Amino acid sequence: MNPLPVILDVDTGIDDAFALMLAVRDPRLELRAVTCVSGNVNVDQVVTNTEYVLETAGAAHVPVARGATRPLLAEPHHATHVHGADGLGGFARPSDRRTEHLHAVELLRRELMAAIGNGETITLIPMAPQTNIAMLLRTYPEVAPGIERIVFMGGSASVGNATATAEFNVFADPEAAAIAIAAAGQLDIPMTMYGLDVFNEVLITREQAVSLRRSGDPAAQLAGALLEHQLGVFGREATTIGDAGAVCAVIEPEGLRTQKYGVRVETGGSYSRGQTIVDRRDWAGDLDDDPQGANLTTMVDIGLEVDAAGYAKLWLAALGQTP
């Protein structure tokens, strides 16, 4: 089978690095491009981190573009308390690569229009605030036929992490998430949400992290060091691969149990801003009588259960490790 073309949209902190490594190393994917956006750290640091990770993983040829420098309306909100001041737990290094001269939105348009011309489709995997994706779909809706599916890491059908109700990627730019999800519905682009309901389930142990760090593979060594940083931050003996789970879900979708529900994003609210409101009601009468127009929400495949052991094995195998 031909590898599946994908583009990752990232705010490279630690788990984005894990996702990039998987997308590069698994032969079932063809990483066409990577676009960067402000999120875990500022966008310039995101670009630096992304280029370093790709170079370490042996994919220095993959085009990288700098995107949105801040959210659409909100003030920037970073996650250095998790990822470190440099976004990579102190392991960030400069790269000799040159970033694409195009803005991220323009690179996305170029790749998607080329795919349309070639009779292809590309799967988009945003694992960051969806600022670039919102701008793409509203500025260039003609790219929709080139998108196979959007599989995004973000949101939650239950609890949050940035706040009690909101997941970080959505909370960092709620307006962008609301626009991207609404646009996907209007443009008939299938969408899957890999949110906090499954995000924390795919775990790597301390022993496995040490084994990676002692490997002869530079990417595995970096992955092991980043895992050990996370173990220290959270004070645990196992830690998640986070965003990389969304890439696993593209490679092996059968490992993710989903249910289709209507989704909208709260952009107001003092305590609920950034919440992904997943409408799990099952009676049409309530939906039809909803004064907020619940039947106008975008239908999204929500990840509710994950083959955690299977996805951990998949990720480790991409880095040459046998669980």
Description:
This protein has 323 residues and is α/β, with parallel strands linked by helices. It has a single domain, classed as Inosine-uridine Nucleoside N-ribohydrolase, Chain A (Alpha-Beta Complex). 38% of the residues lie in helices and 20% in strands. It is built from 13 helices and eleven strands. The protein has helices spanning 14-25, 43-57, 80-83, 104-117, 131-139, 168-171, 174-186, 196-199, 206-213, 218-234, 244-251, 284-288, 308-318, and strands at residues 4-10, 29-36, 64-66, 122-126, 147-153, 191-194, 203-205, 238-240, 256-265, 276-279, 298-306. The strands form two sheets. A nine-stranded mixed beta sheet has the order 3-2-1-4-5-6-11-9-10, with helices on both faces. Strand 1 (4-10), helix 1 (14-25) and strand 2 (29-36) form a beta-alpha-beta unit. The mean pLDDT is 96.
How many beta strands in the DSSP annotation?
11
Which ranges are low-confidence, i.e. pLDDT below 50, for 5 or more consecutive residues? none
Q: Round the mean pLDDT to the nearest integer and report it.
A: 96
Amount of beta strand: 15-25%
Q: What is the name of the CATH superfamily?
A: Ribonucleoside hydrolase-like
**Topology as H/E string?**
EHEHEHHEHEHHEHEHHEHEEHEH
CATH architecture label name:
Alpha-Beta Complex
Major β-sheet annotation: 9 strands, mixed
The CATH topology assignment is Inosine-uridine Nucleoside N-ribohydrolase, Chain A
Q: Mind telling me the CATH class?
A: Alpha Beta
Q: How far apart are the termini?
A: 26 Å
Number of individual domains: 1
User: What is the general shape?
Assistant: globular
Record the strand order, biggest sheet.
3-2-1-4-5-6-11-9-10
